[in-house]
């Protein structure tokens, strides 16, 4: 079942907001993670739906900050309630001291035999989609490890 709010949040709302207000958003996440999660839930409820009249409750949004090295960090947003095709289980916000931002998702998909697969994707500042690979499991280690290699 396609859930429009899940798709729009991870594919439009969050990347657009990050590329427009990235420095402020990252600062907010690092200073007040719980307050930021509260803001995400409010934003979720305000996503404009076009095809569906049914809105899902916002996910629980778990956030971790991972230092890649002294100059680069990765904020991981987990959406444990994601379960349908095209929904993002994990969102990665990579940034460095120069405030260069990269936005990644680990999306649920379907394989040739309709089995669950997971795609590591990136969204550019122009909101173009790049597919970096397909995985057979939802292991967050794959997501974090490959982003570290790309970043």
Write up what this structure looks like:
- It is a single chain.
- The chain has helices spanning 4-31, 33-45, 140-150; strands at residues 62-67, 72-78, 88-96, 101-110, 116-123, 129-135.
- By secondary structure, it is of the alpha+beta class.
- Strands 1-2-3-4-5-6 form a 6-stranded antiparallel beta sheet, sandwiched between helices.
- The termini are far apart.
Low-confidence stretches: none
SS-based class: alpha+beta
In what order do the strands lie side by side in the largest sheet? 1-2-3-4-5-6
Distance between the termini: 33 Å
Task: Give the overall form.
Answer: globular
Over all CA atoms, what is the radius of gyration?
15 Å
How many helical stretches?
Answer: 3
Q: How much helix is in the residues?
A: 25-40%
H/E series:
HHEEEEEEH
Task: Return the average pLDDT rounded to an integer.
Answer: 92
How much of the sequence lies in strands comes to 25-35%
Count the beta strands. 6
Largest sheet: 6 strands, antiparallel
What is the number of independent domains?
1
């Amino acid at each position: 079942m396609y859930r429009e709010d899940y798709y729009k949040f991870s594919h439009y709302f969050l990347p657009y907001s990050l590329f427009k207000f990235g420095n402020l958003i990252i600062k907010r996440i690092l200073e007040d993670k719980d307050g930021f999660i509260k803001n995400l839930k409010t934003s979720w409820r305000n996503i404009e739906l076009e095809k569906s009249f049914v809105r899902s409750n916002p996910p629980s949004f778990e956030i971790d900050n991972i230092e890649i090295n002294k100059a680069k960090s990765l904020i991981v947003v987990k959406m444990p309630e994601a379960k349908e095709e095209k929904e993002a289980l994990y969102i990665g916000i990579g940034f460095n001291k120069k405030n260069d931002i990269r936005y990644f998702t680990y999306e649920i998909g379907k394989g040739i035999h309709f089995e669950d697969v997971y795609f590591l994707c990136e969204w550019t500042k122009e909101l173009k989609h790049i597919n970096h690979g397909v995985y057979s499991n939802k292991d967050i280690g794959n997501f974090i490890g490959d982003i570290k290699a790309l970043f």
